[in-house]
Amino acid sequence: MQMSTTQTVHHPMFARLWVAMSSHETELITRLRRENLDGLTGRVLEIGAGAGNNFAYYPDTVEQVVAIEPEEHLFEHGQRAAAAAPVPVSVTEKTGEALANDPAGEEPFDAVVCSLVLCTVNDPDLVVSQALSHLKPGGELRYLEHVASAGALGRVQRAADATVWPRLFGNCHTHRDTESVIEAAGFEVQSRRRLWTLPRWAPLPVSEFAIGRAVRPA
User: Fold this and answer.
1) β-pairing, 208-215 with 188-196?
2) How far is it, in rounded angstroms, from Cα 102 to Cα 79?
3) How many domains does the chain have?
4) Residue 3 included in any domain
5) What InterPro entries does the record tag this protein with (predicted)?
6) Contact at 8 Å (CB) between 127 and 9?
7) CA 171 centroid distance within chain
8) Strand pairing partners for 89?
9) Does 7 reside within a domain?
10) Which of 22-31, 148-157, 181-190 has the lowest mean pLDDT?
């Protein structure tokens, strides 16, 4: 879901494809979503909520989820998913970059969640820095993202990013070093691991995922 400094974006063909794909996620992706949200408490900001696939898995220790999703079709699906969520969820149609216009104010968040979104934003450095600014000191960033690989797959990713992949898949860039962006913004990564979500004989550019927990220093 591409994000820009504007409030909304439009990728109707990809959005419909994403909804279809999201409704048939693998058991592994579902487990990773649950793991990424496990143990969260208080108020949570979710950046790039997509069709709202995370909403069903928030633990009941979460008091409120404020989710943003700038793509119109996905925003509508997210609203429906929010209505069925086990915790209070509100969905706003805006981009991650647009958070720069929303100061953290008097109510910073206990956690920020990014799931399969930092590959699509126009300015990942800005979005991650805004995530940091909207957190309480000691607050968490939970991330689940496909990331840049090394070796032959990395070369495939770079070629994909330079050609048709971003245009076909909602501005998705497969060779982003997302964890370096998170650390450069000022987060302290407390835990992380990488795993393959597709067989190694099927080296699609989005095969390798990173899941981790980072905190804003107190």
Assistant:
1) antiparallel
2) 21
3) 1
4) no
5) SAM-dependent_MTases_sf, Thiol_S-MT
6) no
7) 13
8) 65
9) no
10) 22-31
CATH of the domain at 28: 3.40.50.150
Phi, psi of 137 (to 5 degrees): -55, 130
pLDDT of residue 99: 76
15: left (phi over 0), alpha (psi -120 to 50) or beta: alpha
Q: How long, in residues, is the chain?
A: 218
Q: Is residue 6 part of a domain?
A: no
Q: Residue 133, Cβ neighbours under 10 Å: how many? A: 16
In the chain, what percentage of residues exceed pLDDT 70? Answer: 90
* Residues 181, 141: Cα–Cα separation, whole Å: 13
- 146 φ/ψ angles, rounded to the nearest 5 degrees: -80, 145
What is the pTM assigned to this prediction?
0.89
Please give the pLDDT value at position 15: 77
Do the bridges between strand 109-115 and strand 42-47 make them parallel or antiparallel, or are there none, so unpaired? Answer: parallel
pLDDT in tens, 2-57: 334 446 666 677 777 778 878 888 999 999 999 999 999 999 999 999 999 999 99
Angle at 52 between CA 169 and CA 83, to 5 degrees: 150
| pLDDT exceeds cutoff 90 at 63 | yes
User: Residues 179, 212: contact at Cβ < 8 Å?
Assistant: yes
Is 138 a member of any domain? yes
